[in-house]
Amino acid sequence: MSIQQRTALITGASAGIGATFARFLAAQGYDLLLVARRVERLNDLATELKQQYGIQTYVFAADLTDKQAPSAIMAFAKERGVVIDMLINNAGLSGKTAFADTPWQELANEIQLMITAVTELAHRVIPDMKQQGWGRIINLSSLAAFSPPGASLLYTGIKSYVLNISESLDMELKPHGIHVTALCPGFTHSEFHDVMGTRDAANHLPAILWQQPEAVVKEGYEAVMKGKPVCVPGIVNKVIASSMRPIPESARYFLGKTFNPFKN
């Protein structure tokens, strides 16, 4: 199968890292299924990329805090005969208030968006990937996955889950030609901090800690194509991650794969 015949599903594709992934993959010749809540932005992006690169683009407006969204996305793809070769699980958010002060529905939405939907979409695309013997999945984790838990936040725990499940899936699926990578960026220039209301605090951080989304996306893509289960983009972030984990990630991956209870 040529690269031009492959299709990538990107969640949270209307801005930031998701939109950057869309532009990057379009330039590589991938057709795109773009998913986000803001359909106007998706339509504009889809039109831009179709005209610029001659690719096929599909737009599906969905809120991944809705439990029915993953199945609806896959039904939309199936109706159009679209097989997902690459999945970019990018959509995400972070809580703005302390755990005890946050209404349960907001916490449930955070879990649904960044744990359940991520896991379900991966589960739903894997059968076709296994059948064709090729697939790539990038799950957006975070540098926060390597850090100690943050007071009142689900975010570090959620991103640790994304990191761990990505490694576990890669161990299982690599023999089938499927690579799974946890992409763990640090501070990245995007709308994330504006949406979360943390822009003022973020602006006070040293410039050396920041990356452009294009650099994050390029390194993440290269990692998944090479079969690297974890990608921490940027030298500064790599140093930070290494300083926070007593056991190197490569050693943790080896141990997890070696002592796999389901290994034949």
Automatic annotation (TrEMBL):
Q: Which UniProt keywords apply?
A: Oxidoreductase
Q: Which CDD domains match?
A: SDR_c (cd05233)
Question: What Pfam families does this protein's entry cite?
Answer: adh_short
Against Gene3D superfamilies, the record matches this protein to: NAD(P)-binding Rossmann-like Domain
- Spell out the molecular function terms from Gene Ontology: oxidoreductase activity
The family line of this record is: Belongs to the short-chain dehydrogenases/reductases (SDR) family.
The family database entries (PANTHER family) matched by this protein are listed as: NADP-DEPENDENT 3-HYDROXY ACID DEHYDROGENASE YDFG, VERY-LONG-CHAIN 3-OXOOACYL-COA REDUCTASE
Protein name in the entry = Short-subunit dehydrogenase
Q: Which organism is it from?
A: Agitococcus lubricus
